[in-house]
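note to self: dont lose this again. the chain is below, predicted strucutre after it. 511 aa total, dont forget to put it in the shared folder this time
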Amino acid sequence: MNETDKNKKGIWSVIMASSAGTLIEWYDFYIFGSLALVISTKFFPQENPSVAFLSTLATFAAGFVVRPFGAMFFGRLGDIIGRKYTFMVSLLLMGGSTFLIGCIPDYKTIGFFAPLLVLILRLLQGLALGGEYGGAAVYVAEHAPKNQRGYWTSWIQTTATAGLFVSLIVILITRSVLGTEEFDNWGWRVPFLGSILMVIVSYFIRKNMDESPVFTKIKAEGKTSKNPLKESFGNIYNFKFVLLALFGAVMGQGVIWYTGQFYAMSFIGKVCAVESHQTEMLMAIALLMGTPFFIVFGGLSDRVGRKKIMMLGMLMALLLYRPIYRQMYKTIDCTGKTEVIEKASYEINKKIVANTICDSLTTTSTHKEYSDGTQINITCKTTNYSDKNKKPLVVEKKSILLNTQNYWIIILLVFVQILFVTMVYGPMAAFLVEMFPAKIRYTSLSLPYHIGNGIFGGLLPIVATYLVSTAKINNNPEWYLQGLWYPILIAGICFVIGVLYLDKNDNKIEE
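---
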């Protein structure tokens, strides 16, 4: 075996070990978001389901908000003691927190402590993820040939989407095996509890990895940083690059990532009420189709530059989001099929005020099929209400089953959004690594990355949900599109700054 083959085999070993652990961490982080609707019924009081769901989204967002603190904590360790050991610790912290979320008793059992414990563990997850991505990106980049960093680090970029994909597949399989009722009752815990096995396997794989050759070299030469935080953020020259990375690249990438994946899933499942199993399956197919393009655009960035690809992806996203979601809404035909959502009959001062088709039903459920093949399932049930003067008698739950043609149209529209994600995210790790010198690289790139994704990206679900809810209350005819103004605004600002100020010359940092 010649030297080139040995080097190639070595980099593949690095990719496999790094990617396996990073994928598991993303899986751990995203099963919470994928199960947000179920979690809202378990850990929060159910007097107001909408508030419970928003509280779950806020807890989900809390994990993102704390990620910059994890970036500074673990980034400092990574620049002082090494890349390998730092992101091994982050893996164990993430895995332990995820496992424990699956063990927490529900709100009916322990009351206020249920959401409190979930929040604490969610914050620990965010801290752990703050140390994981930077370590994996730096570790791979420092093993890769300088003219192929975009290609090799793009394998790390696939793990975020792959983690979401795996979380959806595990949820689909668990629900299929147990049935919807048992899954909603207790089976939702299985994806949380089962992750501990993957974490243990990944830990032993990483334990046998060697330290980054770049870090080994600067450590042997005594050139490691004594105070990475001060050198990264106290040095005016370096801090300008931190700000430029955030506002000229990562901020826009963060909102595009979450729009194309989490917001798309929420829009299809919650706004248009497509049946949950079908929503998860079409998202999984679109993610599977789109994931290889991380590699395509990462490799392409080695030849044409990082900036061109990332800026083009942002521009296409901010111009096409509204047309895409308008077409999704039209294809599912939400306008004609949402007439039974959130309607109920109320008993107010012993007088029946009816606003539901459930009153006419002789059973608790009905089925309706439209001429295009779309089906609607409606379930009505009696519930209790704390206000004695206002007691709902029936509550409706509707789900749409798309016909085959519309099903694949929606997959295509989600796939296009994922292409935008791959364009802005595929070259990102190499772009960030090349902005900063090796001795403070872990710290310097981790903070802007996790602010861009954790703050700007992580707040997207709750901000978008609020904008949509407000527009709906105000009878805006396109209320379902109003949540998109947040990612469009953030990506637009980032695009302008990136075009004007990002260095056109890639690969400018030499070891």
